[in-house]
Amino acid sequence: MADHLLKIRDLRLEGRADETWHPIVNGIDLDLGRGEVLGLIGESGAGKSTLGLAAMGFTRDGVRISGGTVEFDGIDLVNAPLAEKRRLLGKRIAYVAQSAAASFNPAHRIIDQHTEAPVQHGLMSERESEEDAMRLYERLRLPNPDEIGFRYPHQVSGGQLQRAMTAMAMSCRPDLIIFDEPTTALDVTTQIEVLAAIRDIVDQFGTAAIYITHDLAVVAQMADRIKVLLRGDEVEEAPTREMLESPQEDYTRSLWAVRSFERPEKPAPAADAVPVISVRGIDAAYGDTRVLHDVSFDIHEGRTVAVVGESGSGKSTTARCITGLLPPVKGTIRLEGEDLPPDYRRRSKDQLRQVQMIYQMADTALNPRKTVGEILGRPIEFYMGLRGRERRRRVEQLLDEIELPASQFIDRLPSELSGGQKQRVGIARALAAEPRFIICDEVTSALDQLVAEGILKLLARLQDERKLSYMFITHDLATVRAIADEVVVMKDGEVVEQGDKRQMFTPPHHPYTDLLLSSVPEMDPDWLTTLLEERGRENLGDAAIDRMNG
Amino acid sequence: MSAPVGQGDFTSGDTARRKDVPNVFAIILQRLLLGLLTLFVVSIIIFAAVNMLPGDFAQVILGQGATPEATEAIRRDLGLDRPVVLRYFEWLGGALQGDLGRSFAQANFASFVGADAAGGTTVLQQIAPRFANTMFLAGVTAAIAVPFAVGLGILAALYRNTVFDKGTNVFALTSISSPEFFLAYVLILFLAVLNPILPSLSNIYAGMSLGERLERSLLPALTLTLVVTAHMMRMTRAAIINLLASPYIEMARLKGMTPMRVIVRHALPNALAPIINVIAINLAYLITGVVVVEVVFVYPGIGQLFVDAVKTRDIPVVQACCLIFAAAYIVLNLVADILSILSNPRLRHPR
């Protein structure tokens, strides 16, 4: 590349843990030309974010650059004095973080945070920068661009904040922006708006960018080149199309393969079969706010019903109603044809046993001070009345079923497990009650794709072996495609469409289902462009934003 | 729509909307009522506790040779023979109208010189000037100590883990661990005896000019500053450092902001609530707990009056002082609560 902007050579980064330094990034080379977008992809722990920050000459506390060089436009960022680096940061190199909600200071208005960099770096007056912010907001298709900046971060939705942060990164018209998983925390429908906005503005200003993500389909839309990382090492790097068409390395191919997992179709349940769980016309409210309206669906033995929808659509609330944590105001819930008391406190032990739950955050759902053996032993004792040796034998069986060797894992604490292992323990805990029905609440969304696939396969096997019924709450349609038999689409607390999977994935759809489906990124690098053309650029986003704002 | 709560956008979307942000005025009103209720409960406790003090005024004043009849007579004069509950409500009713009763000791003195017992000084007349003096000293101290402590805390957070930070910590901890009278004498030694800059006696009285009052009360104020700085400074430092790992602080750094700006503009506004609360507790201490310093500097504050009243079993004065101390704590904590609430933009600017 003739026009070098960023040149990283043999960069080594180390992190401090347990009093010693451990390698995080082992000798990465990276080149970026002006106006070029490089995708950085890998699972969590691959060192993507650390590398992204190091490209700005920045390391978090407990991380250090132990070797190599980072050269930005001829300036050595490793050895530059702090004051000199500060003159570059925000002005010529900017950063867009994963969670805009956490990265905007809650104490200041959005526009004041926007104007801070240009004013402090002496590029514009506050007034000029405010004007500019409004123009950028308009360009990023934020609603009420003249007014939205004067709100506080908590008064604006997540997708809008993410765009406001992109605008903030643009405030000084930098040469380079590091995007660190900017859409990971967003719904698919919102993600599209943000992706389109980022791509648009990066194009318009000819800004170079490093786009960090774990989602291949996303990076395919954004990047000119893709670099794959695995545990701090580079696996391969190639132009986007080349990489997608013919990945060279096994690891890269395995990343591609995850999305190909799909269960065979099951025969439809007999017409007269009694559903395991039957939700009949329930309404629910938090205080005076009605959050569910007339929700009905059935879940039959051995089948998986995926409940999909954006955040706030009522998926988790429905789960809370079924478990009895939030008694519905109206309607009934039946377990194998029998009415369940609305409040869990009035349900019998056996009714409680039949309905179990697996949570999204295995981290917080397991008691950090109990060993795996104790965590699993508790429901075994409570529901099955087993004690002592019998109890231990049952724990070992369970660990065996979730493919964790009992001898190694039974005495470990949750903090000594990986994310996927914790989720497996969460599954075993639900199984310990020997239920008929399990609610899986976003169980894979906090996990990497390979690990998530392992969890989905495990759930599928357990379902076949035990004729379990699942209610699978998710916002990820790839997961739906992989394991669901039936799909329930929710929006604003109502069911907008339901049916079996094949029917759901073949048109015609309810317009909202259509929006959800078409918003799932695909590997095709032209997907976003084509989609935006189809939807018509002008009203792009506004429809979805209106939906977000209700 | 659900509130944007960090990465958990889709996890807590359903639960977040439940917590409607309550109205600030409703919260403040609730706190005010709670404060009043607390004050009422405290008044009961004070009255009960003071009445349970061993010995009574009559015995103390008459000494060991008192005849039961004489003791009884004085008790009757002062109304001490009537039921406790009745006396409590009389006292409370009076206090609500600003009448804190008559001082036993002053009433006694009045009767010795032949005046009518009922014409003695009221507790209010006795306490008011003392209380004003105490508030003056507390005000002077707060004006010095709060900016000093918060500034020091900010600097300690900015230069955390450096020699400056450690030095500040050692200084603050030393001064808080030393007895107050010792600090007072050290200051007198250096600022009044070796270098006679300030007067070592702080006997202020009515009719003094403000400048003179300030000069006289400077040494006790400095002593008290040394006592209260440590808490406030360490809380400021800790509250700020607590936030330094937040993504928005990292963002500010990545925008190229100077460390000072990162701390003062980005961390401090979010750290205000705990700092305000510690300041309030220390200010309450300045009003209620400064007897030793008053004695050392002969400062006519409410603390000395209180101790004297306890010694002579002058119950109305003791009760009034206790009530004022309790009110000071409650009012300052109330103000701190309200300011903390107002420092939260989510409450100030509901969605």
Automatic annotation (TrEMBL), chain A:
InterPro entries: AAA+_ATPase, ABC_Ni/Peptide_Import, ABC_transporter-like_ATP-bd, ABC_transporter-like_CS, Oligopep_ABC_C, P-loop_NTPase. Gene3D superfamilies: P-loop containing nucleotide triphosphate hydrolases. GO terms for molecular function: ATP binding; ATP hydrolysis activity. Keywords: ATP-binding, Cell inner membrane, Cell membrane, Membrane, Nucleotide-binding, Translocase, Transport. It is a peripheral membrane protein. Residues 6-256, 277-517 form the ABC transporter domain. The keyword NADP does not apply. One of its GO terms (cellular component) is plasma membrane. GO terms for biological process: peptide transport. It is found in: Cell inner membrane. Belongs to the ABC transporter superfamily. This is ABC transporter.
